[in-house]
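Hey,
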Amino acid sequence: MVEVVDKSLETYDKLALRGREWPPLGSGEARGTIVVVHGLGEHIGRHAHVAEFLVARGWRVVAYDQRGHGRSGGERGRLHGADDLLVDLALVVDSVRAEHPGPLVLLGHSLGGLVAARFVAGALQAPVAPAWSRPVDALVMSSPALDAGMNAVQKVLLAVLGRIAPDLGVGNGLDRQGISRDAAVVAAYEADPLVHDRVTPRLARFVADAGAIVASLAPRWTVSTLLLYAGQDRLVAPAGSAAFAAAAPKSVVTAQAFAPLFHEIFNEPEQAEVLSVLGAWLDTLSFSHFSLRSPR
């Protein structure tokens, strides 16, 4: 049976970030730690099967509910400051580095993929990296919101409410049927009490701005990256992932599109194929000079 340990951290504005750690199986040393960053409106519990797959391959996995999500504190879908999700991720990375020295890989899905990519991109900003920037050793993005598109709700959020009510939570307008082609996955999502549909203009602005920054820095990408995305994604535009892959150095970024799949590629009927690609890529990583730094 896979062991799970509950974790908790306090953010700069006194919110509780609730997380979980899956230690490596057996008594051997972990190959490193993979930090999982979930998507909009969901929570880490929906990624437990991915964590168990990674643990079985010798990794330690740490995951947390982002602020305003799952069991963590904060109003649903709301940010206090524009970079809150990045500052929170830095807190998690520092905690992992302090407790488990060794290679650290980020794995982000959807909004989490964008957050993880923006976090990595921080080190590429000139002349000075943001205060929340931290080095990581590798990055995995699953259907990242690099180009989230603009549905009707999001257009209103940014054009009108962004100026007069940046913290007003409204429905995110996402098509739940586009999550997966597996009806059981959609039904479980809809019945999950920890799933919500709230988003605020401030969060929508973060998505729009972060995607543009990541895209602009793609040609300068230096962190080993695996980009996996769905060809039939109706929640984020596959074109954003394709454009990032085309612009990034081929020696650094490995990209694979799964043509028939919907948004949640790890929850599709072909999830075993997707996990196999992930596992094989992780096996190619070499961490002879991993990016260990002391927490700030």
